[in-house]
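Listing S7. Sequence submitted for prediction.
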Amino acid sequence: MINVYPCYIDPGTGSMLLTVILSLVTSAIFLCRGLLIKLKVKFSGGEIEDTGKVPYTIFSDHKRYWNVFESICDEFEKREIPCVYLTGSEDDPALSKDYHYVKAKFIGEGNRCFAVLNTMRSYICLSTTPGLDVLQWKRSKNVDWYAHIYHALEDGLLYRMFALDYYDAILASGDIHYPVIRELEKQRNMPEKEIFTVGSTYMDRLQEKAQHYEHKKNEVTTVLLAPSWGESSILNQKGEAFIEKLIRTGYKIIIRPHPQSKVSEKEMLDRLQARFPENDMLEWNYDNDNFKVLSEADILISDFSGVMFDYAFIFDRPFIYTNEQFDSAPYEAAWLERKPWLLKVLPEMGRELKDEDIDHIKEVIDETIGSQAYKENREKCKDEAWQYRGHAAERTVDYMVAKYEDLRKAETKEAKK
């Protein structure tokens, strides 16, 4: 008689064994694929054949970044170049576009989304999403080149730590990005990325939209409070007391929390909305597209959110900011002695709100709206951060097409060895 004893593997060991098995299988697949490619090259006269990889992929983790990618997709469509657009939002506007060459696909949320990304096959992947190869989103062995494009006019020091370390290229909006990227690479002893200035696709679209938008003068001054999120944000730092003072100005107040606040700070928002419910003079705004609410405001109040530059550069109107409580600890800014560009130019373009100003916030608002000095500085700062205005989409596609050609040439050369 043979005694059979139950075999128990604890979850940690089981997970490790599964990882080892998957790694061995994956390695075998890549080895076989490499040999197959070399054989194809040998018997096709030296020219590499189709590998089954998509030439161009765009990944958007949320529909709110469609304002960055729409003009790029339009440019691919215009040139009749096939491109795949992957999105983590089931209601992304891209999914309803009548494209022929751009194929949009919803790939799920959370782990399902990352599972697709971590195994996708493409020569180039373009994305606004930070944290590649840092958290859940891992570099796929089937993707040759990852390029990051910015969704705000700031130099990257207000990104969370290690946000762009494992990208191969940065598509910058202006020259403000170069010193930051190079200094961070040096600090971390990392190879230099490609940096190519394309401009800003979403700012180009905002500019075009503003030129055709008829804004009616407000009957009463309208103040937009549009903070960032996190412990350093104005809602966390000043909260109820500040909103109370704004309401007492008699002006119309629109509060537009950062989209991430709905996820990470829901309890705080629920408390504030219960304390200050909507009425004719107070609005809570959660529109996916912020153009309408920005166009309606006579003045913007924020902290260190890039929306201040969208507002100032597109509508040429003033803003008030608060950043005296800014904590650089979670951000790339903690690594460098230099001040983030956004915080450096704020005093040139707008008025800093200090605690002693809150009791007479109405006067501060009126003075800022009437300031000529802030107006004169806006154009200078715009030239630094937003270059190639009106041409960002075509420059982005130009870069991707040229990079794809380089990658295919390098692949052919490697396969011939």
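Caption to Listing S7: primary sequence and predicted structure tokens for the chain studied. The CA atoms of residues 72 and 393 lie 5 Å apart. The radius of gyration is 25 Å.
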